[in-house]
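Hello Y.,

Per our agreement to keep a running log of every chain we model this quarter, I'm adding this entry. I've kept the format consistent with earlier entries: sequence first, then predicted structure.
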Amino acid sequence: MLKDHANDLTDREFTMKLFTSILTLCATATFAFSQQKPNVLLIVADDLGLQLSCYGDKHVQTPHLDALAADGMRFKTAYITQSSCSPSRVSIFTGLYPHTHGHIGLAKKNNPPLNKKFQGHTLPALMKAAGYRTGIIGKLHVNPAKAFPFDLNLNAQIGPQAAREVRLMADAAAKFITADADKPFFLMMSYVDPHAPYPPQVDGLPEMLTLPSEVPPWPFQQVEDETTRKNAANFYNAVRRLDAGIGLLMEKLKAAGKYDNTVVIFLGDNGPPFARAKTTCYEAGLRTPFLLRWPGVTTSKSVSEAFVSSVDILPTILDATGIKIPAHVQGRSLRAVGTGDNSGWRSTLAGEFHQHGEHPFFPRRALRDAQYQIIHNVLAGKAMTYVSVDGDTAPTVARLPVYDGTPAQKAMAMLPNPPEWELYDLKADPSQFHNLAADPSHVTTLDRMKALLLEWRKETQDPYLDPTTLAVKHEQVNLRPATLKKTN
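Predicted structure for the entry above:
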């Protein structure tokens, strides 16, 4: 159009008109780009604690996860809500603690599902309603399935073993990512590794195996024999296979041209499947890696001291995609801390436990600050809980004479029947072998931590603060099965 009028304009007028038109076009394109909703890639590793080289583990190299951490923000201290798969994942999907969302054990027949009043407010449901394509590749393991309406669900189709075939996972992700260029996507990649059992290699990965002779005892156990060393080595092999899969996944995302407009979150759903980690409220059970790459918010090579929780994932994703955060959500968006602004952020971090299988029900509540962690074993003396998990033999090894009198042996012996209160100095005793709850010199600290824990339980309306509710659940799960077993 400008050329048609060029003869009627001076050179200067023509140039200014053309320049103005170009600026208008650029501004329009910039506005359109700024209005483009970001994609979201949520990556969850099954049973992964802090066993990554970017978190300081010297017995494994995870270059691809290290690269993701370096390209965004790594949170030094992050908790999942419960060290058990299904409750943890439902917290990710709802932004709620298990005692609120109600899915307090694994997705099994006799365990309660997600509370009905929250079933329309899960992450896939909210993203789908906002116009996002939604997909999950790998493990879901939550009830009821209809409350998590992914457009694509490659959970049942590929099976649990295939979720270790990280090349297959990456190929499936690429197909989903590129399926529709006109709609943004929300994709959850749910890897089985490093969940037990631990096949050393799957599809040729990892290429070089970690050997049992190359790994020491777990810091939170400090006992070992041939079997525990083998399991630890193959756990690390699973971590390295996972890392290779993350590298392949990032390659697919970049090849599709989506990397620069995709929010990426990576975490483990609970701690590693070893005694004193998974199914406990110790740090080894509740702490997992947490990486965030949020274009326009996080900057590369940033490390945050902020205490973050898996309940923060839903509000963060909704904030990033411009979706209203439901009022009932208990987590907070990480936008501010993603920029390095920790002002007004939480100074404590809470986690909990209820049950893993269908029984026993053994509620725990835990809270930490910068130095101490307190654990309340709510039914101490009335019920007993797990000694081990996923076949880990370390508690049996700890009974060997070579460990007589050691803090490790005492800690293992305490697992099935812990005292009501536990208090640990995480700076002086990171392995949590020395319970200070009965130490007269720590009375003030114990009282302070008790008060903070009670405050959090009241704020989140913990139903098990009610003695009647607690007693009914104890009777229903712990006492009736035992009675039935005796009569059969």
